[in-house]
From TrEMBL:
GO biological process entries: methylation
Annotated source species: Nicotiana tabacum (Common tobacco)
Originating gene: LOC107803220
Gene Ontology CC: one annotated term: cytoplasm
Pfam families per UniProt: Methyltransf_29
Statement: the UniProt record of this protein carries the keyword Ribosomal protein: no
Topology of the protein relative to the lipid bilayer: Single-pass type II membrane protein
UniProt-recorded name of the protein: Methyltransferase
Length: 674
C-alpha cells in the first residue's frame, strides 16, 4: 500500500509538471503570433469583440487605436489563400453618451428667471454677514493676456462707513464748505464737489432694517420708517399735517404749512381762483420751490401735472428724501448764487408756499431766476404771510414784491386770502416799452438763457424769443408727440431735419419699449422713479407714458452733448442738465430704474467709467434695475465694474442680432448690509 501511494504521487507530480510546461509554451506561441500580426508589414491588428449587451444600445466592437478602420478578417484567420477574399468593413458604434448631471435648483435672485425672461418675483437678498466682512478682499478680474485680449482689472468695491448712508458727495463736502469766503447768500447749499481723486470709491450701505419700498400709489400716503429713519421732521412739522409717525411707518396726511387742511383742497382753491390754470391741460409741468415733503406735487400727479419739487439740504435735510421715497419727482437744489439746472421757459407754473426766500433781495435777482424759468404766459403762485397779514414789516415786504413784479411786467391776476397769483407776459413788448434806464434791465442779446451749468445768477430779465418759441405750445396730452418750435434752436450736425430726427427717435423708443413690455413684462415691474441718463429729445420717457407705465422719468441731458432740455420740457416732461463726470444731487437709494443709451462710449473720453457706475449704484435702490444700451467696445469693462459692485449682470443682443455693434447690459442690484 505504501509503495503504491508513493509511486502514484511521483507519476502525478510528473504529469502536472508537463501540463505547466505545455501551457507556458502555448502562451508564448500565442503572444508572438499576436505580436507578429500587430507589428507586421501589412499593419494588421487584432480585433476584440465585446459580447456584453447594454439594454439601451446595440452590440458594439471596441478596439484601441484602430477605430473605424477597414480590415481583411480572412487573412488574419487563414493565411493559406493566395487571393484574399473581399474586405469586410466593420462599422463601430460610438460608446453611449454619459448621463447628464441632475438639474440644479434655480433660485430667482434677479430680474431674469431660469428661462431668460424678466421676472418681477425676485428677492432683494438675504445677505451673508461673512460676505460683508470679506467684501472687497482679493477679488478681481483676470487678464486674458494669453489670448492677446487685455481686459480691465477691477477689484471688488468695499462698503462705505455707516455714517455715509445718506451721503451726497457735492453737497456734503465739509472741507470745501469750510473754505467758502461767504455763506450769507446760501452758498453752502450749492454744489461743491470733491476734488479729483477724492471722489466716492465705495458702496453706500442702506440703513439698518431697510425694506423694499411700498409701491405707488400707496407710497404717496405712507413709507417705511426704517428706509428714512429720521423723526425730526415729524416732530417739527407734525402739527402742520406734513408728516406723522405711525408704528413702523411715516404717514403723510397731505398738508403743508399754508394748507394744513390738505393739498387737494388747496389745489381746488387755486383752480377756482383762476380757471385758466386748467391743471392737466394748460398747466402740465410745475416747479415747487421749498417743497417740504412734496405733498403739493404728490396730489398734482392725479391731475396729470408733473411737478418737480426742490429744496436745499438744510435744517429739514430729509424733506427731499421723503419726497423721493414717496415716489414724487424731486431734487436737492437751492436757489442761491447759480442758475438752477433747468432751461428757460421750462415751467407753466412755479409755486412757493412759505418757502422762506427773500424774493426782493439783491435787486430781485432770485425772482429774476424764477422769471427765466417761467414759461411765457405762465403763473407764479405765492402763498405767504405778506400776502394776507397786516403787520407793518409784512406790509412793507408786500409793497416791495408788488413793485418788483411790476418792473418785471408781471400781472397780478388774482389775490385771495393767503394766495397771490401773477402771470408773466407772452412777449418782450412790455419790457421794450419801459422808460430808459428801468431796472432790472433786459439781458444782453448774446446771453443764452438755456446755458445753466455753473452759471451765475444774472440781475437782468431774460429775453423771450422774438419768434414766440416756448409760448405757443399745444395742450396736454397732444404736446407729448408734437414737434415743438424750439427744435429749431438746437444745433444739429445732420442733413436730416430736426423734425425728422425728433420723430425718428420717438418711433425708435416706442418700438423698443413695446418689445420690453412684451418680452420682459415691464408692466409687472414696480417701477416708479426712473432716470434716463442720456435723454436726447425725451423719446424714452414718452414711450413709457404711451405704454401706460405708472412712473415718472427724470430726463438728464449731459453737458457733453446738445442741449435738448427746452424740447423735453415743451413735450410736457421733466429734465435737468448734468455732467456725469461729477456726482448727481440726490439722496442714495432713490431710483428704481436707470437707463443709459450710448452714454459710456461718449463719456469714457472725459471721465472714468467706474466713477459713473459707482454713482449709479449710490442712487439706485436695492432691487433696482439698470439698462445700458451701448457699443460692444465698452461692454467688457462695464460687466467687470458691475460685478465688482455686486450687481447681477447679463449681456444681451439687440433686435439686430448677435453681430450688431451694440449690446444691452441688464443689471440688478442686491441688498448689501453693513
Amino acid at each position: 500500500m505504501k509503495g503504491l501511494s508513493g509511486g502514484g504521487g511521483d507519476v502525478f507530480k510528473s504529469t502536472t509538471l508537463i501540463k505547466i510546461l505545455a501551457f507556458t509554451l502555448l502562451s508564448i506561441a500565442f503572444f508572438y503570433f499576436g505580436k507578429h500580426w500587430s507589428d507586421g508589414s501589412q499593419q494588421q491588428q487584432l480585433i476584440f469583440f465585446n459580447s456584453r449587451q447594454n439594454p439601451t444600445t446595440s452590440q458594439f466592437v471596441s478596439i484601441s487605436p484602430n477605430f473605424n478602420k477597414i480590415f481583411d478578417l480572412s487573412s488574419i484567420i487563414n493565411d493559406t489563400n493566395s487571393i484574399p477574399p473581399p474586405a469586410v468593413e466593420v462599422v463601430l458604434s460610438p460608446p453611449p453618451p454619459p448621463r447628464p448631471p441632475p438639474a440644479s435648483v434655480v433660485e430667482n435672485m434677479g430680474i431674469v428667471n431660469e428661462n431668460g425672461v424678466m421676472n418681477n418675483e425676485f428677492k432683494i437678498g438675504d445677505f451673508d454677514p461673512e460676505v460683508v466682512e470679506n467684501w472687497g478682499v482679493g477679488n478681481e478680474t483676470v487678464d486674458d493676456e494669453g489670448s492677446g485680449v487685455h481686459r480691465f482689472r477691477v477689484k471688488k468695491f468695499g462698503l462705505c462707513p455707516a455714517s455715509m448712508r445718506e451721503y451726497i458727495p457735492c453737497l456734503d463736502n465739509v472741507e470745501a464748505i469750510r473754505k467758502l469766503k461767504s455763506t450769507e447768500r446760501g452758498e453752502k447749499f450749492e454744489r461743491h464737489c470733491p476734488e479729483k481723486g477724492k471722489g466716492l470709491n465705495c458702496l453706500v450701505p442702506p440703513p439698518r432694517g431697510y425694506r423694499a419700498p411700498i409701491p405707488w400709489p400707496r407710497s404717496r400716503d405712507e413709507v417705511w420708517f426704517s428706509n428714512v429713519p429720521h423723526a425730526r421732521l415729524a416732530e417739527d412739522k407734525g402739527g402742520q399735517n406734513w408728516i406723522t409717525i405711525d408704528k413702523d411707518k411715516f404717514k403723510f396726511p397731505g398738508g403743508g404749512t399754508q394748507f394744513i387742511h390738505g393739498a387737494n383742497q388747496y389745489l381746488d382753491q387755486i383752480e377756482k381762483m383762476l380757471p385758466e390754470i386748467a391743471f392737466g391741460r394748460h398747466v402740465r409741468v410745475a416747479l415747487d420751490i421749498g417743497c417740504g415733503v412734496a405733498s403739493f406735487g404728490a396730489y398734482l400727479l392725479s391731475r396729470n401735472v408733473l411737478t418737480l419739487s426742490i429744496a436745499p439740504k438744510d435744517v429739514h435735510e430729509n424733506q427731499i428724501q421723503f419726497a423721493l421715497e414717496r415716489g414724487v419727482p424731486a431734487m436737492v437744489a437751492a436757489i442761491a448764487t447759480h442758475r438752477l439746472l433747468y432751461p428757460s421757459q421750462a415751467f407753466e407754473l412755479i409755486h412757493c408756499s412759505r418757502c422762506r426766500i427773500n424774493w426782493t433781495r439783491d435787486d430781485g435777482i432770485l425772482l429774476l431766476e424764477v422769471n427765466r424759468l417761467l414759461r411765457a404766459g405762465g403763473y407764479f403762485v405765492w402763498a405767504a404771510q405778506p400776502v394776507y397779514k397786516h403787520e407793518a414789516v409784512l406790509e412793507g415786504q408786500w409793497e416791495e414784491m408788488v413793485n418788483l413784479t411790476t418792473r418785471l411786467c408781471w400781472n397780478l391776476v388774482k389775490k385771495e386770502g393767503y394766495i397771490a397769483i401773477w402771470q408773466k407776459p407772452l412777449n418782450n413788448s412790455c419790457y421794450l416799452s419801459r422808460e430808459e434806464g428801468s431796472q432790472p434791465p433786459l439781458c444782453d442779446r448774446h446771453d443764452d438763457p438755456d446755458n445753466v451749468w455753473y452759471v451765475d445768477l444774472k440781475a437782468c430779465i431774460a429775453r423771450l424769443p422774438e419768434e414766440g418759441y416756448g409760448a405757443n405750445i399745444t395742450t396736454w396730452p397732444s404736446r407729448l408727440q408734437y414737434p415743438p418750435d424750439r427744435l429749431k434752436s438746437i444745433q444739429v450736425d445732420s442733413f436730416v431735419s430736426r423734425k425728422e430726427l425728433f420723430e425718428a427717435e420717438s418711433k425708435f423708443w416706442k418700438e423698443i419699449i413695446e418689445s420690453y413690455v412684451r418680452a420682459w413684462h415691464w408692466k409687472k415691474f414696480k417701477l416708479r422713479n426712473v432716470m434716463d441718463m442720456r435723454a436726447g429729445y425725451g423719446g424714452f420717457a414718452a414711450a413709457l407714458i404711451e405704454n401706460q407705465l405708472d412712473c415718472w422719468v427724470l430726463n438728464v441731458v449731459p453737458v457733453s452733448g446738445q442741449n435738448t432740455l427746452p424740447v423735453i420740457f415743451d413735450r410736457g416732461l421733466l429734465g435737468v442738465m448734468h455732467d456725469w463726470c461729477e456726482p448727481f444731487d440726490t439722496y442714495p437709494r432713490t431710483y428704481d430704474l436707470l437707463h443709459a443709451n450710448s452714454l459710456f462710449s461718449i463719456e469714457q473720453k472725459r471721465c472714468n467709467m467706474s466713477t459713473i457706475m459707482l454713482e449709479m449704484d449710490r442712487i439706485l435702490r436695492p432691487g433696482g434695475r439698470v439698462y445700458i444700451r451701448d457699443s460692444v467696445a465698452v461692454m467688457d469693462e462695464l460687466q467687470d465694474i458691475g460685478k465688482a459692485m455686486g450687481w447681477h449682470v447679463t449681456l444681451r443682443d439687440t433686435s439686430e442680432g448677435p453681430h450688431a455693434s451694440y449690446k444691452i447690459l441688464t443689471c440688478d442690484k442686491h441688498l448689501l448690509r453693513a
